[in-house]
Amino acid sequence: MTLQVCRAVPHDVPAAADVLADAVTDHPWTRWTIDADGHRERLAALHRLFLSAVAVPFGRVDVGRAGERLSSVAVWVPGGALPDDAWARWARWPPGSRGTGRRPRTGPRRRWPSAASTSRT
Fold this sequence. Notes:
This protein is α+β, with helices and mostly antiparallel strands. The protein is 35% helix and 17% strand. Strand 2 and strand 3 form a beta hairpin. Helix 1 (13-24) packs across helix 3. The protein is globular. Residues 93-121 are annotated as: Disordered.
C-alpha cells in the first residue's frame, strides 16, 4: 500500500496526537516526565494541545496515510517565530492545574546525586 503524505488540517489533530503518543509512550524521557497514572491518555492530550495550539496554526504538520489509516506524523515549528500568545494555552496544562505550568506529581521524586556526593577524594 502506498503512503500518501499531505499537510495536516485541524480535523487531523486527534489522530495525529494518537500516532505521536504511541511513538513515544515508552520513551524514558516521557516515562519520567508524564505521570504514570493515565500515562498514555496524558501524553495524547499533551500532543493534541501542542498540535492544535502551536504546530498546526504556526508551523507545519504533515501526516501520512496508508489507505484510510493515519500512520505517520512529521512536525516542524519555526524557532523563535511564534507569537507570544501561542504559548498561552500551555500555561494551563495539564487540565485542572491552577495555571502554574507545573504538572502535579504522584509517587516518589527521583533524586540525582550531587557532584559533591559522587566525587572521590
